[in-house]
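look at this one:
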Amino acid sequence: MDLHVRVLAIFHIAFGIIGLIGALAVLIVFGGMARTAALAVAEEPDAWIAVPLLSIIGSVLIIIALTLSVPGIIGGWGLLQRRSWSRVLMIVLSVLHLINIPFGTVLAVYGLWGSTVEGDGEPVGDTEAGHDLVSRARIACFELHFKPA
């Protein structure tokens, strides 16, 4: 199981770094488009509407990318350092990554599986309540994601 934890940590760190690069690209692209629209206001007075619209769309995309990327890097580092809080963070991030089709979904399923089982294949937690909670969380996540339309 140690291999799966390390792979999960490396995948989250890599996915987080890619997300940070994507956020930087969105900043450059949407900032450039807003700047171009602002310069076009002199020739086309209706172009001023595009400036705040582009700024809002770019800001929302950057916030979404940073919301998933930064905790993913922190959680991946925590998994590599065997911190106790990192499993909980990976479960939460995995649920959030379910909507990020296709790569985020694969990472999420692997993360949910890798974060909720021990080395012998048993769910995390030695109590019956812990086993029941993990089982219900798995069922809810898979039903949510794979439910037919």
